[in-house]
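Let us begin with a simple case.
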Amino acid sequence: MNDQHNQDLVDLYEPIATLKPVDENIWIVDGPIVRMAMYGTSIPFPTRMTIVRLNNGDLWCHSPIELTQKLPKCYTNSCRLDRKF
């Protein structure tokens, strides 16, 4: 099976690398498909980051995706990103 065929098996939640509000002070950002090596093969799967604005204004980031040119502007418009857990 070629990589393109494997890519087609996993759908992305478009648009990627864009803040999507879930609730007040909670966003998700869908990322690219990454490949995980397992059992002698590699398995494609989509990535997703969750961002939560804390009471002090900091952003808590769970499962960060690759930083793109577009994302820093999103962070700046929301507030500063001081911690990643």
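The second case is a distinct protein. As before, the sequence precedes its structure tokens.
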Amino acid sequence: MLLSDAAMSYEADKRIEGFSAQTLKAYRLQAKLLMDYFGNINISKITTMVCQH
């Protein structure tokens, strides 16, 4: 599943749950920033591995 598809599904789920318009707007912004950084990649490529500098 692409990151954009996951973000849209997540937002739709939260809208059904009754989250406020402002919260949904914040989620859209965070999803956009994530996609700006990683691109619209398959979510299976995202891990929690932390790189130390």
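Residues 3-45 form one domain. The chain is about 60% helix and 0% strand.
Keep these points in mind for the review questions at the end of the chapter.
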